[in-house]
């Protein structure tokens, strides 16, 4: 995709600070650095969201995430680590090419995520679980 920034990085047309690469994925420093050590893991072929990946590519992405996370743990010893993978505008995705944020955390740092629990009744939970059997 000529107008996709991550496709252009994968193709070597736009520079990045790469930390690892294999045949299906590449990981590089996020240009915004929400915290120091913020890395993006990107799949090489252009697919917008998680559900556009086949199982193998999704597994390859998670293998790279795991490798990057363990390297961050070894090198930076953060107090915590957050993975963020956004899909669609409503899901907070701004670059529509599948990627996972690997974000080192420290207590009291700036990132915020509101997580308003709806606490539905058990029968609603059971009905939804039935729909989502897979
Ligand atoms: P998201 O909002 O989850 O789609 O995240 C997109 C991320 O891509 C943001 O954190 C940006 O800082 C990052 N980003 C955009 N352009 C570049 C680039 N050229 N190199 C590295 N990171 C980028
Ligand atoms: Zn792309």
Task: Characterise the protein shown here.
A hairpin with a 3-residue loop joins strand 1 (18-21) and strand 2 (25-29). With 134 residues, the chain is an alpha+beta fold. The chain has a five-stranded antiparallel beta sheet, covered by helices on one side. The mean pLDDT is 98. The chain has helices spanning 5-10, 55-76, 122-131; strands at 18-21, 25-29, 39-43, 80-84, 99-105. The protein is globular. The protein has a single domain, classed as HIT family, subunit A (2-Layer Sandwich), CATH 3.30.428. Zinc ion (ZN) binds next to helix 1.
| N→C terminal distance | 32 Å
The oligomeric state of the chains shown is: single chain
CATH top level label: Alpha Beta
C-alpha Rg, in Å? 17 Å
* General shape: globular
> Quick one: biggest sheet?
5 strands, antiparallel
Q: What is the helical fraction, as a range of percent?
A: 25-40%
Q: Specify the number of helices.
A: 3
Strand order of the largest sheet: 1-2-3-5-4
> What structural class do you assign from the helix and strand content?
alpha+beta
Label this structure with key terms.
134 residues, alpha+beta, HIT family, subunit A, 3 helices, 28% helix, 19% strand, binds adenosine monophosphate, binds zinc ion
Secondary-structure map:
Elements: H1 5-10, E1 18-21, E2 25-29, E3 39-43, H2 55-76, E4 80-84, E5 99-105, H3 122-131
Antiparallel strand pairs: 1-2, 2-3, 3-5, 4-5
The structure holds adenosine monophosphate and zinc ion.
């Amino acid at each position: 995709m000529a107008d996709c920034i991550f496709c252009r990085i994968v193709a070597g047309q736009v520079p990045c600070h790469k930390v690892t690469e294999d045949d299906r994925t590449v990981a590089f420093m996020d240009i915004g650095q929400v915290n120091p050590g913020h890395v993006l893991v990107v799949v090489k072929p252009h697919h917008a969201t998680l559900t556009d990946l086949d199982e193998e590519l999704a597994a390859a992405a998670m293998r790279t995430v795991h490798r990057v996370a363990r390297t961050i743990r070894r090198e930076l010893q953060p107090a915590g680590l957050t993975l963020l993978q956004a899909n669609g505008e409503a899901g907070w995705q701004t670059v529509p090419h599948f990627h996972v944020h690997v974000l080192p955390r420290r207590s009291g740092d700036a990132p915020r995520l509101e997580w308003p629990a709806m606490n539905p009744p058990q029968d609603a939970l059971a009905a939804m679980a039935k729909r989502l059997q897979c």
